[in-house]
């Protein structure tokens, strides 16, 4: 179902930041694994892939079986191998870290097995016997894709509604191109859909193009996997000047189309989270000569991952700490951010106002939430902008389940996959139970 995306996309020339293993390198790295009992790397993985088992299968030349072990636990194992912050998950938990030796490169080994499986076209899963039940899923991101795949294995028909023209959610439109490009995400979407019986209707926004009540009337159960909303902006004077935009919006344009950076010499990225860190690293790769982070806190409290910031510093990014824009100035486009320093209590320091020259500003202070979207369905509760659900994904409305960023507030792809899969189990149990029919 892959929607063609332009081949001259701005993300195109950006290379992989971690080169893939050759078969010999994968074999050598796999042979270092200690196959720990109660392996901490498995516990650290939200989808609990049996890591020692998939690694052991590489050492015996059974790459097909290795990939099966991965996909059984995580059907998006190919993209997770590329985009997971393994430094704080499986690799960070590897026992070698406590032995003063380099941890096993689990992500690269997982990439090796899953890439070979994709190349060879190995198929592992088939749909279960038709149950006659149908599930509607809102959003075609990792949460819904994982949920729908699991539901198909259990025999339920699935329709995914996606407001954008492409499927894959932020895996397609958001993750940094040096981890994975949009076309690779779409290859994975096709791979997931190859199980058959999952219809993806792109260009359909639930709540606008199709009402919630119509959606409910069409299906026996629903899964809400609609993620987060547009970038939040700061609302300061001048923020609407050309050359200032939300980071997620900018990244999506770079991944699916083109961004014009001609004449951009100095870029500021406002924020200190992982989207801000992706933003600065992407701008460096797109050739912007001076890229700086503007963050209201100090370096130790920055929420973005340390390993990403360390890499950004090596790539030449600088930072203005305890600094916040209060206005932007310019003519035909932005020329300057007027900023103030903040004290320990995040209060502006008197007399600290100063200008930072900028031809481009990306605002990366977080995405808005979409929880209220579904609140017109009685029983759905919204907490901190997210859909409230229990540990199995069940919301307060019978037959409606939720998972991924729209429910957890924004985590990682692997969390969305885990939550989608857990919710599929709960949806199955609910459909099989007699009390709602
Ligand atoms: C810039 C950026 C970079 C990231 N990089 C990484 C990374 O490197 N590694 C990592 O693990 N995680 C990363 N993440 C986080 C990760 O992408 C998300 O946690 C994950 O995609 C969440 O999956 P999801 O399915 O819940 O939501 P999404 O991927 O957001 O998918 C939700 C889908 O629902 C659709 N939708 C919304 N409203 C409606 C509606 N009304 N009707 C129909 N469809 C709707 C949206 O268009 C979207 O396609 C990144 C996030 C951002 C913003
Ligand atoms: S913790 Fe490290 S050595 Fe132990 S099984 Fe996991 S990857 Fe192998």
Describe this structure in words.
With 437 residues, this protein is α/β, with parallel strands linked by helices. The protein has 3 domains: 23-120, Fumarate Reductase Iron-sulfur Protein, Chain B, domain 2 (Orthogonal Bundle); 134-229 and 368-433, FAD/NAD(P)-binding domain (3-Layer(bba) Sandwich); 244-363, FAD/NAD(P)-binding domain (3-Layer(bba) Sandwich), CATH 3.50.50.60. The protein is 34% helix and 15% strand. The protein is built from 16 helices and 15 strands. The protein has helices at residues 23-30, 40-44, 51-59, 63-73, 77-83, 90-93, 106-120, 142-153, 170-173, 182-193, 212-218, 247-256, 274-285, 306-314, 405-408, 413-432; strands spanning 134-138, 157-162, 198-202, 221-224, 244-246, 266-270, 290-294, 318-320, 323-330, 334-341, 354-357, 360-363, 382-383, 386-387, 400-402. The strands form 4 sheets. A 5-stranded parallel sheet has the order 3-2-1-4-15, with helices on both faces. Helix 14 (306-314) links the parallel strand 7 and strand 8. Helix 3 runs antiparallel to helix 4 (63-73), helix 5 (77-83) runs antiparallel to helix 7 (106-120) and helix 13 runs parallel beside helix 14. The longest helix is centred in the C-terminal third of the chain and has 20 residues, at 413-432. It starts with 22 loop residues before the first helix and ends in a 5-residue tail after the last helix. Residues 33-36, 39-41, 51-52, 94-96, 104, 106 line the site of iron/sulfur cluster. Flavin-adenine dinucleotide (FAD) binds next to helix 8, strand 2, helix 9, helix 12 and helix 13.
């Amino acid at each position: 179902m892959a929607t063609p995306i332009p081949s001259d996309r701005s993300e195109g020339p950006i290379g992989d930041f971690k080169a893939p293993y050759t078969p010999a390198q994968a074999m050598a790295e796999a042979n270092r694994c200690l196959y720990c009992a109660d392996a901490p790397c498995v516990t650290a993985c939200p989808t609990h892939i049996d890591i020692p088992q998939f690694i052991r299968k590489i050492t015996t030349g059974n790459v097909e079986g290795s990939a099966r072990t991965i996909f059984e636990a995580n059907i998006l194992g190919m993209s997770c191998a590329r985009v997971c912050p393994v430094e704080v998950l499986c690799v960070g938990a590897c026992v070698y870290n406590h032995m003063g030796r380099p941890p096993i490169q689990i992500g690269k080994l997982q990439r090796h097995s899953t890439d070979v499986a994709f190349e060879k076209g190995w198929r592992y899963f088939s749909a279960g016997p038709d149950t006659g039940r149908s599930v509607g899923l809102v959003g075609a991101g990792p949460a819904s894709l994982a949920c729908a795949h699991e539901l198909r294995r259990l025999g339920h028909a699935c329709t995914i509604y996606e407001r954008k023209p492409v499927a894959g959610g932020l895996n397609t439109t958001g993750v940094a191109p040096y981890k994975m490009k949009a076309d690779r995400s779409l290859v994975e979407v096709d791979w997931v859909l190859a199980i058959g019986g999952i219809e993806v209707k792109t260009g359909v926004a639930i709540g606008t193009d199709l009402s919630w009540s119509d959606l409910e009337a069409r299906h026996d159960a629903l899964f809400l996997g609609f993620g987060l909303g547009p970038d939040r902006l700061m609302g300061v004077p001048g923020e609407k000047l050309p050359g200032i935009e939300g980071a997620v919006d900018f990244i999506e344009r770079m991944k699916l189309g083109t961004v014009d950076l001609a004449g951009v010499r100095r870029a500021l990225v406002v924020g200190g989270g992982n989207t801000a860190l992706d933003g600065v690293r992407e701008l460096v790769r797109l050739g912007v000569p001076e890229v700086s982070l503007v963050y209201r806190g100090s370096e130790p409290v920055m929420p973005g991952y340390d390993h990403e910031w360390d890499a950004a510093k090596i790539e030449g990014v600088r930072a203005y700490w305890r600094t916040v824009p209060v206005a932007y100035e310019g003519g035909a486009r932005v020329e300057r951010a007027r900023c103030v320093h903040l004290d320990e209590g995040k209060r502006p320091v008197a007399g600290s106002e100063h200008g930072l020259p900028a031809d481009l500003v990306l605002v990366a202070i977080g995405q808005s939430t979409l929880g209220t979207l579904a609140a017109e369905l009685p029983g759905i509760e919204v907490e901190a902008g997210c859909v409230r659900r229990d540990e199995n994904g069940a919301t307060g409305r019978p037959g409606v389940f939720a998972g991924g960023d729209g429910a957890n507030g924004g985590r990682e792809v692997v969390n969305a996959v885990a939550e989608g899969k857990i919710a599929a189990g709960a949806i199955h149990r609910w459909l099989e139970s007699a009390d709602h029919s």
